[in-house]
Design brief:
single chain, mainly alpha, globular
Amino acid sequence: MRALLTCAQVEAKLFLRDSATVGFGVLFPSGLLLGLGAVPALRETSPETGGLRSIDVWAPTALVFGMVMIAVQHVPAVIAAYRERGILRRLSTTPAHPRSVLLAQMIVAFASVVVSAALMVLLAWAVLDIAPPERPLAFAVAFVTGYAALLGLGLISAAVARTSSAANQIGTLLFVALMFFGGAFLPRVLMPDMLREVGEFVPPGLQALTTAWSAEAGEVTATAGGQPFWLQLAALAGIAGVASTIAAKFFRWE
């Protein structure tokens, strides 16, 4: 336990020194939401959004932006860099086992997305008058399972990438694909039904978070008859379990 705490402290310091990751993974989601909230048209209700404001419907996408950034880009790149530099191999001969380093990295990463989410929800409520999640417990469950699914995908990248550069490239491709289906580039309400159906599970957790945050927004972004909330959570748990198993099977320490 002491070794894990020490590793966590070191990883936290390294994370805070990485201004790009702190900026894009932790602060940018809030800044992006506030920036879009400054556009008058997005603060007006619309028939396409079921009488809600566009910014109300889009808020969960901004939240998932930070989750995806940390899970599929930051974590894999750090782990791949440790492998590339032989750090994991050298740690295997010290009391700080490589598993402690990996666990500490995941703890710090999760803490960062929690801070990012809390900051965004608070600023959304205080500045843009976006009500906090209607179902806090369901929101927390969707947040954790969604992040676990995203992290599982990121760990597959971390397991197979030989270098940090390769991990960054894979992470960028995953980020663009996930955020496309999440509506970051085109509002999901304007997507064809087929793409919206995919978007109910990709990126993992977005639709569940939207539904738990606002039932009305969840109805807007879902296709006709949308998947039940519990089924969405089951799918997230399944993705997390399968992806983590694949990552563990192919993971290399050096």
